[in-house]
Amino acid sequence: DLMRAQPGGSLKPHAVEGKAGSLTAAYVALEAEEVTRGRSVAAAAFAPGEKEKGTRSLLVAYAPRNTRARGAAGRGMLLVWDLGAARRAITHAMTLEGSPTCVAWGPRRGSGTPAVVLCGTEEGALCAWDLREPAQRARMGDAADSGDGEDAAAFSALAKHGTAFRRPSYSTEGKILKCLGSPSAAGDAFGEPRGALVSVAAAAAEGPNPPGVSDRERLSGRFAFHVLALDADGNVDAHLVSELPRREAEDAAMADVGLRFGSRVRVTRAAAGIEYGDRKKKKTTAASRAFGMRVASLGGGAGVEF
Predict the structure, then answer these.
(1) Which residues contact 159 (CB under 8 A, 6 or more apart)?
(2) CA 13 to chain centre
(3) Contact indicator for 167, 144 with CB cutoff of 8 Å
């Protein structure tokens, strides 16, 4: 609460609440007390490609301080804030079972905000949300989530912003649990579970079509791009995030534990265990820990560098 002289008190003299264009000279408190209470900020990322009109979409991940808490307070949360609004506005609200550690936006298509947001978790899962999905499909509308207590307060607070919680369109969490619970899952597309993810990044959807995506499919408006996930031990996994045709998505949801019913976003691991950093140095330095990476185009979208 940096913009207030005292917690809950008046604004500092130099802080202008909700004033457009003042973000470089003033603090802005991104808070929704009923929703963010008992949480700490774990990561944040500005939406790409908004330079011509000013960056206004900020994705913020909130991790629960008490992971054993029940209801909304015990789940991870992502909020998209509109920094250009006259009042602090939440445009999207997402929730997940794990504790978020890193976030990223998918590539921008056209002139709008990217349609996909990504999140890595302390448990090693990768989650994706398609922000174009209808709210009534994505929101958590069962009795447990809309009942009494802290969940009800969070739902009421989000309703004032015209939005509601969304479950991940796709999550690898179920596949991780499958690997942990069954040795026969060794052949699963996601293989052995890894440590906490510390960085995720999307490669621009430019250049040649990703494997499995034809020119016709790409021209139809379906998206497909690669996402890299770095874990704390310095291993990088490459994933393909793609949009399935509606009929194929309905069939896939019957067998794929990661795909939520009603969603068309699928995450497929394309490469696993790419070593990041000096292997010899990591073996001799017990305290070594990876914490970030940068993805850059190497001309025509042909590759990336770490």
Answers:
(1) none
(2) 35
(3) no
Query: If you write DSSP's letter for every residue of the chain in order, what string do you get?
Result: -TTBSSTTSPBPTT--TT-TT-TTTS------HHHHTTEEEEEEEEPSS-TTT---EEEEEEEES-TT--GGGGSEEEEEEETTSSS-EEEEEEEESS-EEEEEEPPP-TTS--SEEEEEETTS-EEEEETTS-HHHHB--STTTSSSSHHHHHHHHHHTTT--EE--SEESHHHHHHHHH-GGGGGSTT-S--S-EEEEEEPPS-SSPPTT--HHHHHTT--EEEEEEEETTSEEEEEEEEEPPHHHHHHHTTT-TTBPTT--EEEEEEEEEEE-S-HHHHHH-TT-----------STT-----
C-alpha to C-alpha distance for 97 and 216, rounded to whole angstroms? 36
Residue 253's alpha-carbon distances to 15, 163, 215, 246, 265, in angstroms, are 48, 25, 25, 11, 10
pLDDT higher than threshold 80 for residue 268: yes
Strand partners, 4: 11
Tokens matching residue 86 = 């006259």
Cα–Cα nearest to 163, from 84, 77, 38: 77
User: Is the pLDDT confidence value at 171 over 90?
Assistant: yes
What pLDDT, on the 0 to 100 scale, is given for residue 154?
A: 82
Backbone angles phi, psi at 18, to 5 degrees: 75, 10
Question: For the whole model, what pTM was predicted?
Answer: 0.76
d(CA 75, CA 64): 6
Residue 93's nearest CA partner among 47, 49, 62 is 62
